[in-house]
Structures are given as structure tokens and as C-alpha cells.
Amino acid sequence: MSTTTTSSSSPALPPSDRTRIRRVAENACYDRDTLYAIVDAAYVCHVAFADDKGTHCIPTACWREGDHLYIHGSNGGRLIKLLGKGVQACVTITHIDGLVLARSAFNHSMNYRSAMVYGRFEAVAEEGKAPALDAFMHHIAPGREHHARPGNAKELAATTVMRISLNEAACKVRSGGPNDDEEDMHLSVWAGVLPLVQQHGAPVPDVHNPQPAPDYVQQWSTAHSAP
Fold this sequence. Notes:
The protein is of the alpha+beta class and 227 residues long. The protein contains 5 helices and 11 strands. It has a single domain (25-222), classed as Electron Transport, Fmn-binding Protein, Chain A (Pnp Oxidase, Chain A, Roll). It has helices at 32-40, 78-84, 126-140, 153-157, 215-218, and strands at 28-29, 44-51, 54-61, 63-65, 68-74, 88-101, 109-120, 122-123, 159-165, 169-174, 192-195. The strands form 2 sheets. Strands 1, 2, 3, 6, 7, 10 and 11 form a 7-stranded antiparallel beta sheet that branches. The chain has a 4-stranded antiparallel beta sheet with strand order 4-5-9-8, with helices on both faces. The longest helix is centred in the middle third of the chain and has 15 residues, at 126-140.
């Protein structure tokens, strides 16, 4: 199975005209490590595209292998059919880490990690679908790919796995407290950050489940949550 880890020496992504961040450019990140970390922390991405009926943005499960972001879906689904024709797509992922409360309304902000990817999706070859979906199971819960029944021939035949290169992408990241104007610093208004954290709750077994919980289930609630 492909790994989703990357070396800290990964080169930066040269910004294209589409990915060059101009608004609040100081929050821009083009290095692969930041991009991969944002993608690897996500279970869902949003895929935007246009067809003759208009512009659409569809949420879907995602995972990463190497330099590609992967999705999957039914062969007959609109998203899969349109992407299969090679239309241009834009994929976004956002993690909100906190609400930043400033002394003035217009200086309120959010702490976040976001990524935007441009390009065209390509279908994964038939022989690559099962390994790619194993990687998806691993992303959901490392080790799950060894326990859950893998897709059978009928299920695999009805499913398309697609991937998009991460070579045209950019990230924006904000952290820290409010940036108030000097003239507002005297105001008697509370300022600071309201953190938002994705937490791992205690596993809830199915009512018909007779199996003991494997290690990755037992460790779920103590696993590291997003910052």
C-alpha cells in the first residue's frame, strides 16, 4: 500500500497563475508538507466543476497517496461522469481551528488551514482500484483494510476511483490572536481566540456486533485530534 507520509525536504510547489495567493498573501503556503498535512487530516473534500446546467460543488470522501488526492463514486454519478470527461475541477479542503475575536467587528477572523487544488481528474486503472480502496480504508482507520471485507468483483465494477495531481495547489494558514488597529486597543472589549477542535469520541459498537474491538477502535478516543 502506498504511504501518505512525506519527507520534510519535499520541494515547494511553484505557484501558477491560478494558485498564486494575492489576498492576505502572508498566509500563503506552497510547500508540499503543509499541503499533504491538510489533505491527510481531511475525510471530506469539496469538488467544484461546471457543466451545461451550471456550476456545482460536491462534497465527497477523499484520501491521499503520494502526490495525488483520491475520490471514488458510482459509475453513474454526475460527479464521476463529468470528471471522467476531463473537465477542469477545483478541490478545496478547510479545517477551522478557532474563531478570532477582535476588538472591532471588521477585524474578527478565523484560524484555519485550507488547501485548493486545480486540475483534471483521471480514472484509476481497474487493477489499481482495489489497492486504492484499501488505502481509503487505511485512511479511515489504520488496520481496517485488514479486517473489513474487501470489495467483490461486482462492487468494484460499479465503482470508479479517480485521482487528481497535487502539483497545482496552494494553501492558506492562519494562527494566533487578533490583529486590532492601534486606535481600537483601548476599547473595553474582550479579545482572543475561541478554539475549535475535532475530537475523537468513544466508539459505539453496533447492536449486533459480537466482535471484540481491535486496537485501532480501542485507541480511537485517545488518538490525537486535529489542532
